[in-house]
Amino acid sequence: MKRKRTFSTDMDNTDSSMLVERKKSPNGLELVSAFRAGRHDPTDLVELAREIQLADNTVRATACGKLQVIAEQVRFLQEQAKRVLQEAREDQSRHHAHCNFKRVPGHVYHLYRRPTGETYWSMLSPTEWGPSAPEQDYLGAFRLEHDMSWTPWERMEQRAHELAQLNGLLASDAHGASLNKALMMDTSGP
Amino acid sequence: MSSKPAFKVADISLADWGRKEIMLAENEMPGLMSLRSKYKDSKPLKGARIAGCLHMTVQTAVLIETLVVLGAEVQWSSCNIFSTQDHAAAAIAKTGVPVYAWKGETDEEYIWCIEQTLVFKDGQPLNLILDDGGDLTNLVHEKYPQFLSNIKGISEETTTGVHNLYKMMKDGKLKVPAINVNDSVTKSKFDNLYGCRESLIDGIKRATDVMLAGKVCVVAGYGDVGKGCAQSLRAFGGRVIVTEIDPINALQASMEGYEVTTMDEASKEGQIFVTTTGCKDIITGKHFLNMRNDSIICNIGHFDCEIEVTWLDKNAVEKINIKPQVDRYKLSNGRHIILLAEGRLVNLGCAMGHPSFVMSNSFTNQTLAQIELWTKPGHYSVGVHMLPKKLDEEVAALHLDHLGVKLTKLNADQAAYLGIPAEGPYKPDHYRY
């Protein structure tokens, strides 16, 4: 009896939920000795407990790994969102710089700041201004895109390349069959 | 200036559209077109390097191409930062004429544009000036005096520029002969009278669509512009009241059948007000307060100082912008005033300025002035000259066919009776037309 008690304590210690619940009268037939019919090597249970522990750890590690990927993606999306907002703010402020002429998409214009703090658009680059340039700071050359965004001079070539590729795609493949292929090619671009 | 761009316009892709409008304008500019056919072989302007500074419009494009056909090299800028028609500039740039003009320049860009026209290819400086307003003339005199010795002359298009020339002459600053094109009879008497006669109504109609018939219209000033305005308002069925300071013009107006009174009186009666005086403070605060509800006010005179717009901006209870160039003010007395083009020239602000045909008169004068200055070096001294009467008559003659005019010839007997040459000039210089 003493041994039995010890065993059951062992079982409790291991984990009572580890094994399938016992029944004294399965399907209405009372067992002669439930103990006898259910006796087993106590080390089996230790092994089982270890396996469960391992499985727990593995699942947790896998979940963490997966969550990490999502977290990274969220961080990336956050960064992207921030960049989009930043670009929108910049485009907006560029649109609000003073301008006397009608700006035409596809054309390059030059942004200057006057000593008064006024920013304004000019048709003329610093080279074209030459010695006739008034006192002003050059803020850069920008091309107005058809979506009313401004592409800075240093990114013009890259953007032109991207647009040319995408336009090529639109022209060559209306159904998008080779879209994946082309986009993969694009990732190896400049 | 050594590495200047070949041209600078807003959008070169507008060239085809510009070309179509130039073709339309050519048909309405018979003076310039007949100079082309007359001089296309002899090329009297060969060797001339003309720097031009005049509104870069479709009509000016016809002038530029005429000068080129006559053998000149031409470089162009506009004489107003907002007046360039970008499609006309593009069409001219496409032909290879260096043009530096776009609608909406800054003041510094404006000067830059003019400066680009001074030196021609191979580093050769200009030798003729065609100016409108005097900015090119002043720039060369003040900043580039080294070019002056090479310049054969200036032809000046407008009153402001002519005033500037006379002032320079008086101050001893003018260094080249100048021809006052503005005061040719076929310029001012046509441009001011017949040009405004059509473009005033055009401006009022485009801005307000108001019915003129039966309205009381007040025309301030009865000079050439005022005469044209009064006549067209009356032709639409308006009852016209004139205000004048000059007894001669006042008598003229009265004998044409117009009521002549002061603005103090007329402001109580009028519904449409037009200032044509060239003077300042013609319609002021007290006049606005006299006016009937929704009176329409506009200026076709000179600057924007004829109507006291500052009073309106300061004292009106409310200002609502109806559409570009049309503002409706609510006054303290509850009545409204409709102001066109912010008190600036209504035919430019609300309509398309002068039609091609009347500009052909002005520009034929310009072309003849350029030929005179280029082909007769030494003939014109440093100073301000008028085109000879004979050339003024020639300008008019060149426009007759297009209108189907049959001119009567003076025979030798009649010429002898009048004591004038049968081929003209028919009038003395002081004749007023």
From TrEMBL, chain A:
Coiled-coil stretches are: 67-94
Q: Could you tell me which InterPro entries the record lists for this protein?
A: DUF2452
Q: Which UniProt keywords apply?
A: Coiled coil
Q: Give the protein's recorded name.
A: Uncharacterized protein C1orf50 homolog
Supply the source organism for this entry.
Answer: Thrips palmi (Melon thrips)
From TrEMBL, chain B:
Which Gene Ontology CC terms are recorded?
Answer: cytosol
Which Pfam families does the record cross-reference, listed alphabetically? AdoHcyase, AdoHcyase_NAD
The residues covered by the S-adenosyl-L-homocysteine hydrolase NAD binding domain are: 192-353
Reactions catalysed, semicolon-separated, are: S-adenosyl-L-homocysteine + H2O = L-homocysteine + adenosine
Looking up InterPro entries in the UniProt record yields: Adenosylhomocyst_ase-like_sf (IPR042172), Adenosylhomocysteinase-like (IPR000043), Ado_hCys_hydrolase_NAD-bd (IPR015878), NAD(P)-bd_dom_sf (IPR036291), S-Ado-L-homoCys_hydrolase_CS (IPR020082)
The record describes how the cofactor is bound as: Binds 1 NAD(+) per subunit.
EC numbers, comma separated: 3.13.2.1
- Keyword annotations of the record: Hydrolase, NAD, One-carbon metabolism
Q: Where does substrate bind?
A: 57, 132, 157, 187, 191
Give a GO molecular function annotation for the protein: adenosylhomocysteinase activity
Q: Which SUPFAM superfamilies match?
A: Formate/glycerate dehydrogenase catalytic domain-like, NAD(P)-binding Rossmann-fold domains
**GO BP term, example:** one-carbon metabolic process
State where NAD(+) binds.
158-160, 223-228, 244, 249, 300-302, 347, 354
State the needed cofactors, names only. NAD(+)
The record's top EC class is hydrolase
Is the keyword Hydrolase in the record?
Answer: yes
Pathway stated in the Swiss-Prot or TrEMBL entry: Amino-acid biosynthesis; L-homocysteine biosynthesis; L-homocysteine from S-adenosyl-L-homocysteine: step 1/1
Family membership? Belongs to the adenosylhomocysteinase family.
Q: How does it assemble?
A: Homotetramer.
Q: NCBIfam families under this entry?
A: ahcY, PRK05476.2-3
Q: Any idea what this protein is called?
A: Adenosylhomocysteinase
Q: What gene is it encoded by?
A: LOC117639760
